[in-house]
Predict the 3D structure of the following.
Amino acid sequence: DKSMIDRINFLAKKKKSEGLTEEEQKEQKELYKQYLAEFRRGFDKQLDNIDVKTPDGKVVPLKQFNKKK
């Protein structure tokens, strides 16, 4: 969500300008971990909605198409 991204950006700027405390470093690591998990979940959902048309004219879901190769 927006507040998480804002906090990540704030900590990144602070890290460059003055450095982070140990507690802030832990918070930053955890926020990155949460953000990446959400990003991967959303990306995976997008991949679920992609279909591939094979040379023989069949339309198959991308994940099923990748398993055949």
Q: What stands out?
A: The chain is about 70% helix and 10% strand. Helices lie at 2-17, 22-48, 62-68. The beta strands are 51-53, 59-61. Residues 22-48 form the longest helix (27 residues).
